[in-house]
What we know:
Number of helices: 14
Pfam families: Peripla_BP_2
Strand order of the largest sheet: 8-7-6-9-10-11
Protein name: Cobalamin-binding protein
Structural class: alpha/beta
Strand content: 5-15%
Domain Fe/B12 periplasmic-binding: 2-291
CATH architecture of the largest domain: 3-Layer(aba) Sandwich
Number of strands: 11
Order of helices and strands: EHEHEHEHEHHEEHEHEHHHEHHEH
Organism: Halosolutus amylolyticus
CATH class of the largest domain: Alpha Beta
Amino acid sequence: MRIVTTLPSATELVAALGIEPVGVSHECDYPPGVESLPSVTRSRISEARRASSGEIDRQVLDTAETEGGIYDVDVETLEDLDPDLIVTQGMCDVCAVDEAVVADAVAELDADPEVLTTDPHSVADVLDDLDRLGRVTGREAHAREARLDLEARIDTVRERTADLDDDDRPRVAIFDWTDPVMIAGHWTAELVDWAGGEYGLADAGERSRPREWTEIREYDPELVIVAPCGFGLDQIAANWTDLTDREGWDDLAAVQTDRVWALDGHHYLNRPGPRLVDTLEAIAGIVHPDRFDAPDRNVAVPFDDLASIETGDADTAGDSRAEVD
């Protein structure tokens, strides 16, 4: 089956079934090698890698208003690839090409490929998408095996935090944008709960949205993880003052006790594919270092180590874009 994916998480889900797509999005970068596949999407946001989080947010809003959308599809390339199946998403029209853009492109094709739309807001939704893809592609056994492995890893984390009292669960805040400030939603509350933390600023399945800084200060998180949508560790370092220059930052309990971390939001927290389980394991290592191994330094680092990231000592991530869903 000839499959085209229009966002990174879809590419990773397809790869988990042992399938290499014939075309991908301009942001797809995992598994290694997919960058060389034909790209069927483009972003109208310019210089996102070097822009500040505030500038990206302004470009997103301006482009959505003046261009009618942030992304478009290369219909000519899509036609040449002649896909049987296109995998897209309906969760957020800012994070990636969405189902409406894909539908417009398909209407221009001579062929009539099947379109599978993902719309995950929980870890279970991601695993269900894996099952759906398995059925559509005839890879049910691959999907079942991949899901069982992911669920076993989740259970391992949950079992090791099940005995924690409420007092042993620190108040956690995870930012998925810093200017404006947004608290990560969707599956994030689940991940924090399973990792042994308290996530009092958002419920499981709730969309990410801008927050007043006063709300963050009142919550007074005991642990902060900064993982902006589309930002790798280097770009988090370049935009760190979005938070540190805010009034009251130094008074937060997490800052007072040196429990502030940066986590690669581009490849992990904000990519609803199999590596959400890697994200869970990383968060568990941050929340309860007494029970779990520390996260890989390519995934997450403490605030004090960001200076080395800014000088280019760590891998860079892909394109960046604000999540305003």
